[in-house]
Specification:
Elements lengths: L1 H5 L3 H12 L3 E5 L5 E4 L1 H7 L3 H5 L9 H16 L4 E9 L5 E11 L6 E8 L1 H19 L3 E5 L5 E4 L1 H7 L3 H4 L13 H12 L4 E9 L5 E12 L5 E10 L1 H20 L3 H14 L4 E5 L4 E4 L1 H6 L4 H4 L4 H4 L5 H11 L4 E10 L2 E13 L5 E10 L1 H52 L4 H26 L2 H6 L1 H16 L2 E7 L6 H22 L3 E9 L2 E8 L6 H6 L3 H12 L3 E6 L5 E8 L3 H7 L2
Parallel strand pairs: 16-17
Antiparallel strand pairs: 1-2, 1-5, 3-4, 4-5, 6-7, 6-10, 8-9, 9-10, 11-12, 11-15, 13-14, 14-15, 17-18, 18-20, 19-20
Length: about 600
């Protein structure tokens, strides 16, 4: 090997230097999957030496399920049915840990004995972010609280199942509507004040107010509202958690009325205490009644449920015996309440052996008929779930910013690792011509073609970010033009057809275009196909997009359990234009993506008007 390196021509040595300097892992393999050369980045990524990696077979790098998928595509490559493929898979490191890599495989046919070029980019951080985002999205969707996001003008842009349960509006009915549909007319000024405070960078926490449901019924809610910022720190919207506190407010009102009645009654001690015990037992909130020695006189069913205690075994027991991990600061709160104070906290952290519990509490004395303090009442509401929602929202906003930064990094890497290096090679070629004018005629056409190829690559990258053709040609024509360019770059066939009678709104068109981009990139990376079908059609006041291939497909359940930020991104884009998207795929059974978005064309509107 060393002797061979010393005999390399200057051009070959240059490419060898580029090979070793590449920040992306590269391996050159034979058609049996045996590595012949590996670069330093690949060795560093996996923690093996070059000799150790060359002694392995390509299927030895990954867990069996990942290696099986890779090898099936490798076999197609070797058989000549495809000449490249891409997929994301896991790799074993020397210490036994796993890293995620984005693998791109190409067949090098220019040699007498064809070789395989494998390029691997470490995407472990990206995968970790995707998995975290899916977990947080699942937490948000399963929340009993309403989780809503709105733009700077107060227009609703996201709406979870909890919001539908509390306010009655479906997601399709709520998204795109002003947040004022939830606000009673007499409180509209309050919303304006909230928006002004948020736009100034403020934060709303545990603000208790009233909102109105679809049916016109008023509900008591506790609002926590935070700003959503983009990667530059600019406020682009707001996230809101609305907790239904109607039962709690009703319980507080019942307690207040009960205390007033007892004050008026001034009856005997036993009757007064009995009424209070009946109230505590039946109130729909977490309430406990204790005597001056902190022993339980009565507890509500909700209290028992929240803190996993048996009501038949708690009466007469010490509060501190039942909960030996109560913080000392809470014991001080109890002492002060027994001396006549009423104390409360909107949220308080309780670090327990089984994990952290968040509690909203109020502690107040209860008095006997003679006016003396008979003990205390503890109102304790478990708000752990709500805190998880807040953290999930915060994390999702952070992940959104991270996704933006990852996209910027990808673009920067593509500019640096591809276009910049190709420009450098072009400059070297021009310099060589200057030193050897006799080769001008033979090399001129080659350099011209490379210049055109670099220009096309820059144009393609620009269109990935913003396709001006959508604006100038219209949505459908712009999508068709982009498909043509994409098919030429990827050397694949895209059968594009359309049946739309009039222009589409740009917002809808942009959403469909981004879904199309994601779907075709996924087809190139994962399916290994050379032909994709794309249809855009207008049917029954809806615009439909279909993207179908007959490639390797994927396991839908596995994707839902694991990563798949691309699918989530497509779902979010379609949801924001009030549409629906479905995925049909199975291993080796191809993939079909269907999108439906409500749309009423001008022609349809004229027909409806008669």
């Amino acid at each position: 090997m060393e002797e061979a390196l010393h005999t390399l021509t200057p051009d070959a040595q240059l490419f060898r230097d580029v090979f070793n300097a590449s920040p992306i892992g590269i391996a050159v393999e034979n058609l049996e999957g045996q590595p012949l050369f590996v670069n330093l980045a690949f060795c560093s990524m996996l923690g093996f030496s070059e000799e150790e990696l060359r002694s392995k077979h390509c299927v030895d790098f990954s867990p069996p399920e990942d290696a099986e998928r890779d090898w099936a595509l490798f076999q197609q490559l070797r058989a000549g049915s495809i000449d490249h493929y891409q997929l994301e898979k896991r790799y074993f490191r020397r210490d036994g840990s796993l890293v995620w890599g984005s693998l791109s495989i190409s067949l090098l046919k220019s040699r007498p004995s064809p070789l395989v070029l494998a390029m691997v980019e470490d995407i472990t951080a990206k995968k970790t972010a995707e998995e975290a985002r899916f977990r947080h999205a699942a937490v948000v969707e399963s929340s009993e609280d309403a989780i809503i996001s709105k733009d700077l003008d107060g227009v609703i842009v996201s709406w979870n199942a909890g919001a539908q349960r509390i306010f009655g509006y479906t997601e399709a009915e709520a998204v795109g509507q002003p947040i004022t549909i939830l606000i009673p007319p007499e409180l509209r000024d309050e919303e304006n004040q909230i928006l002004e405070r948020l736009r100034a960078g403020g934060h709303i926490e545990h603000h208790e107010t009233i909102r109105v449901t679809k049916e016109g019924r008023k509900v008591d809610v506790s609002l926590t509202i935070s700003s959503i910022r983009d990667c530059s720190g600019k406020i682009v919207g707001f996230s809101k958690i609305a907790q239904n506190i109607t039962e709690r407010k009703r319980a507080e009102q019942i307690l207040h009325e009960t205390n007033q009645a007892l004050e008026r009654q001034k009856g005997v001690l036993q009757a007064r205490e009995e009424l209070l015990r009946i109230f505590v037992k039946n109130v729909p909130a977490g309430v406990a009644m204790l005597d001056r020695d902190m022993r339980y006189l009565q507890v509500s069913d909700r209290f028992c449920a929240d803190y996993s205690v048996d009501s038949s075994r708690v009466l007469g027991r010490s509060h501190y015996e039942l909960f030996p991990d109560i913080p000392d600061r809470w014991k001080e709160i109890h002492r002060r309440a027994l001396e006549g104070e009423t104390l409360r906290a909107d949220e308080d952290r309780w670090d327990r052996e089984g994990g952290t519990t968040w509690v909203r509490w109020e502690v107040r004395p209860w008095r006997s008929a003679d006016g003396l303090t008979g003990g205390i009442l503890i109102f304790a509401e478990d708000i752990t779930r709500r805190k998880q929602m807040e953290e999930a929202l915060s994390s999702m906003s952070r992940k959104l910013i991270e996704s933006q930064e990852q996209e910027r990094t990808r673009i920067g890497r593509e500019l640096h690792d591809d276009i910049n290096q190709r420009l450098a090679m072009l400059a070297i070629g021009l310099e060589q011509l200057q030193n050897n004018p006799l080769k001008v005629r033979s090399r001129l056409q080659e350099l011209r073609e490379e210049t055109i190829a670099i220009s096309s690559a820059v144009q393609a990258l620009s269109h990935e970010l913003h396709s001006s053709k959508l604006e100038y040609l219209g949505v459908v024509s712009g999508m068709e033009s982009w498909c043509k360019e994409f098919s030429e770059r990827q050397k694949m066939q895209i059968d594009f057809s359309s049946d739309v009678s009039g222009p589409l709104p740009f917002e809808i068109g942009l959403a469909l275009f981004r879904v199309l981009q994601e779907a075709l990139h996924n087809a190139v990376k994962h399916s290994g196909v050379k032909r994709v079908e794309v249809q855009v059609a207008e049917r029954s006041n809806e615009v439909h997009l279909l993207v179908r291939d007959s490639g390797s497909g994927f396991d839908m359940e596995a994707v839902k359990r694991g990563s798949g930020l691309g699918l989530l991104s497509m779902q979010e884009r379609v949801r924001l234009v009030h549409g629906a998207i479905s995925f049909e795929s199975k291993p080796m059974g191809g993939t079909t993506i269907r999108v439906r978005v409500p749309f009423k064309s001008e022609q349809a509107a004229r027909r409806a008007a008669g």
